[in-house]
Amino acid sequence: MSILTETFTLNNGVTIPKVGFGTWQMPEGAETQEAVAKALSLGYRHVDTAHAYGNEGSVGRAVRASGIDREELFVTSKLPAQVKTRDGATKTIEESLRSLGLDYMDLYLIHAPWPWATPDQSDDEGNLQAWSALEEAHAAGQIRAIGISNFAVPDMQNILDHGDIIPAVNQILYYCGFTQPINTSFAQDHGMVVEAYSPLATGGLLTDRTINEIAHAHGVTPAQVAIRFCIEQYVLPLPKATSEAHISANAQLDFSLSPEEISALEALPDSNFARSHFDSQR
Ligand SMILES: NC(=O)c1ccc[n+]([C@@H]2O[C@H](COP(=O)([O-])OP(=O)(O)OC[C@H]3O[C@@H](n4cnc5c(N)ncnc54)[C@H](OP(=O)(O)O)[C@@H]3O)[C@@H](O)[C@H]2O)c1
């Protein structure tokens, strides 16, 4: 069985394909629609977008044109980080559904606990308001599972203490050398599936010497090692690619890493110099 049809089971019983196709920095238009269509034709069944990416329209068109039964596909989108009121969130969920052209989304996440402009200031009250809108949309059948993204331990605790539904997913920055062990363990210990965004460190990981040596030993590419690493940590990778060769290669993960290789990959230096990592160990 291809890794693309293997699934994790979320805490509400919904199954989620173990590898998702990332679409950040893919603009609305034909290029993105073609990349998603290519991914679906190559067997991907899980696509990750966000209201903030501005490409829900292209993702939705590719999904609807694929000819694949809707129940076989898993579509995630996200509530923009600055939307922190219940009414604002309800309106934005409707917008996402309209842009995607779908009756329901499989997963909807609060994109971040803080507005992007103030990444160190979580809005606890706003997150609870947004969460209640997600809970309501879930109850109404508009979203099959609800979750969070970029939430550190105190942000998760806020939802656990005051929300009615335990988040099904926390999607966080995660790659070899940057695995946020405190946030990852906390989320997993509380029943959330952790999703790895930027599993290739947005490309920064691919020239690292150690990962290249491990890839060479298995006859695969550094990207495949980085994606396989996530799966072996029970973390769900969301690799993004536009070239067909990359989209295809990223789904060929039929090899195993040894405990020594996993340790070496965990110990890599951080290779994503371009990004602020926020206060991700809070
Ligand atoms: N929740 C959040 O706040 C958040 C934030 C960031 C990202 N995300 C999600 O996570 C997804 C992935 O993260 P990301 O976009 O930062 O990037 P990534 O998946 O870590 O890396 C993508 C880069 O790696 C290249 N690449 C992909 N496969 C390759 C291969 N087999 N060999 C060599 N190069 C390869 C891509 O090139 P080509 O495109 O040229 O093929 C692209 O430049 C996003 O698209 C998004 O869905 C979520």
From TrEMBL:
Source taxon at top rank: Bacteria
Signal peptide boundaries: none
PANTHER family with a match to the protein in the record: 2,5-DIKETO-D-GLUCONIC ACID REDUCTASE, NADP-DEPENDENT OXIDOREDUCTASE DOMAIN-CONTAINING PROTEIN
SUPFAM superfamilies in UniProt: NAD(P)-linked oxidoreductase
Record site feature (Lowers pKa of active site Tyr), residues: 78
InterPro entries to which the protein is assigned, alphabetical: AKR (IPR020471), Aldo/ket_reductase_CS (IPR018170), NAD(P)_OxRdtase_dom_sf (IPR036812), NADP_OxRdtase_dom (IPR023210)
Pfam family membership, one: Aldo_ket_red
Family the entry assigns: Belongs to the aldo/keto reductase family.
Active-site residues, Swiss-Prot/TrEMBL: 53
This protein's name: 2,5-diketo-D-gluconic acid reductase
Occurrences of domain NADP-dependent oxidoreductase (ranges): 18-268
GO MF term set: oxidoreductase activity, acting on the CH-OH group of donors, NAD or NADP as acceptor
